[in-house]
């Protein structure tokens, strides 16, 4: 079984939380028993999270050797210049080593749900939306990549993983993905 879930901002990618007070988890969304997240999406990121009850499938989706493409819509602070996009396309140096090249392009603001809390707005500083596709999944990688080229991330939404997209899912909604 494979499930596409639109993880809301401020939800953990696990079913329990031992923090005090506890934070929202996947347990609050009526997901089928026996599934678990295939990969992670940070607490402060939103969008597509795949869940499965199949360990081999989870491995295929998450193991860096399989290089499944992950596409993100990223709102960044600043006006993204072509040289910054080109740096992302070449790969950037992070403190844990160079990244693989990303596909990077500027996009119009996607039609998204409002975020709670809203992204900070500053009149004097422009922002831009990028679409980034990466084939690895280091901790907070997209945020670190955009920061490395001088474009701090304001909002991060995962739009697709390995051919599965977010289309038609509101935050907190999920749907089964038919076997291919």
Describe this entry's structure for a reader.
It contains 3 helices and 11 strands. It is α+β, with helices and mostly antiparallel strands. The protein has one domain: Alpha-L RNA-binding motif (Alpha-Beta Plaits). The strands form 2 sheets. Strands 1, 2, 3, 4, 7, 8, 9, 10 and 11 form a 9-stranded mixed sheet that branches. Strands 5-6 form a two-stranded antiparallel ribbon. The longest helix is centred in the middle third of the chain and has 9 residues.
CATH architecture: 2-Layer Sandwich
Fraction of residues in β-strands: 25-35%
Shape verdict = globular
- Tell me the radius of gyration: 16 Å
CATH topology: Alpha-Beta Plaits
Characterize the biggest β-sheet: 9 strands, mixed
Number of strands: 11
* Low-pLDDT runs: none
Characteristic terms for this protein:
180 residues; alpha+beta; Alpha-Beta Plaits; nine-stranded mixed β-sheet; two-stranded antiparallel ribbon; 3 helices; 11 strands; globular
SSE map:
Layout (H helix, E strand, L loop, with lengths): L1 E6 L28 E2 L8 E7 L2 H8 L7 E8 L4 H9 L2 E2 L2 E2 L4 E5 L19 E8 L6 H8 L4 E9 L2 E2 L8 E4 L3
Parallel strand pairs: 3-9
Antiparallel strand pairs: 1-3, 1-11, 2-3, 4-8, 4-9, 5-6, 7-8, 9-10
Task: Write a short abstract of this structure.
It contains three helices and eleven strands. By secondary structure, the protein is of the alpha+beta class. The strands form two sheets. Strands 1, 2, 3, 4, 7, 8, 9, 10 and 11 form a nine-stranded mixed sheet that branches. It has a two-stranded antiparallel ribbon with strand order 5-6.
């Amino acid at each position: 079984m494979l499930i596409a879930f639109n993880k809301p901002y401020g939800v953990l990618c696990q079913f329990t939380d031992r923090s005090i007070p506890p934070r929202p988890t996947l347990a609050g969304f009526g997901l089928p028993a026996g599934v678990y997240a295939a990969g992670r999406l940070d607490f402060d990121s939103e969008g597509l999270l795949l869940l499965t009850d199949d360990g081999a499938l989870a491995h295929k989706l998450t193991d860096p050797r399989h290089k499944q493409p992950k596409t993100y819509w990223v709102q960044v602070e600043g006006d993204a210049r072509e040289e910054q996009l080109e740096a992302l396309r070449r790969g950037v140096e992070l403190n844990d080593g160079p990244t693989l090249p990303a596909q990077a392009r500027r996009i119009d603001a996607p039609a998204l749900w409002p975020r709670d809390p809203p992204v900070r707005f500053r009149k004097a500083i422009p922002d831009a939306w990028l679409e980034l596709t990466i084939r690895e999944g280091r901790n907070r990688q997209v945020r670190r990549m955009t920061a490395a080229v001088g474009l701090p991330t304001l909002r991060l939404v995962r739009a697709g993983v390995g051919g599965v997209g977010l289309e038609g899912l509101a935050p907190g909604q999920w749907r089964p993905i038919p076997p291919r």
